[in-house]
């Protein structure tokens, strides 16, 4: 019997520069450090024990240089995800008032092509939304194939706020947390990568930022009675978030707790985690349309 020719039916591996994105900007060693410092990963969530600021931080110039580098990489990764049109990315930002959900989103989205990334902000539920389950309005906004979506607040407010304001029973809390975990598992099983980030701000820094908002006419309009309630009841909010974060940190959708007292460092760490997450999704550029590939156009040396 003749031995099969190894050259027959053997697909030629595509060149890395043609098919696969370049080497990781966030290498494994750095990813492990980020995970150990920021990912909940089964650890008890006591926000007072999680850092809100690090003493040893890079210089402002070094942080901005790194953020610019990460932003350029992020744009390419998100464009690749969009072009591939298969995977989905959902980024969830949670945090107490003034923690910087808007600020970090602006920092991340700066320089990103609008087709690659969209932000959704959830306000107080409307009358129609109140008539449905608390996940109804959220499900309508999750990413489709090739899409990347940022949630500025999310379905987690549908549990945290009732705990604080309504004093709901433990049975109610357990039921809603189970529904969240089931909902997110369904999304992950539908090729959605979920990145959940809690911006951890100290009581002192929150108070200072509220004062700054009041003193700045450009920001004063943001303040509401609810903000005053949040500032006066920091511990109530912290306790509610501790309950929810710990019980919704799952293997398929873990929580990252980011120190948020320093805005530049907050933005840097968030960008590192976002880029690292995308780099580990195994993205690659799709092959061009076969008709385009076979076209005689490419053989012409000039018009």
UniProtKB/TrEMBL annotation:
Residues 59-280 form the Polyphosphate kinase-2-related domain. Pfam families: PPK2. InterPro entries: P-loop_NTPase, PPK2-rel_1, PPK2-related. This is Polyphosphate kinase-2-related domain-containing protein. Gene3D superfamilies: P-loop containing nucleotide triphosphate hydrolases. It comes from the Bacteria. It comes from Limnobacter litoralis. Residues 1-21 are annotated as: Disordered.
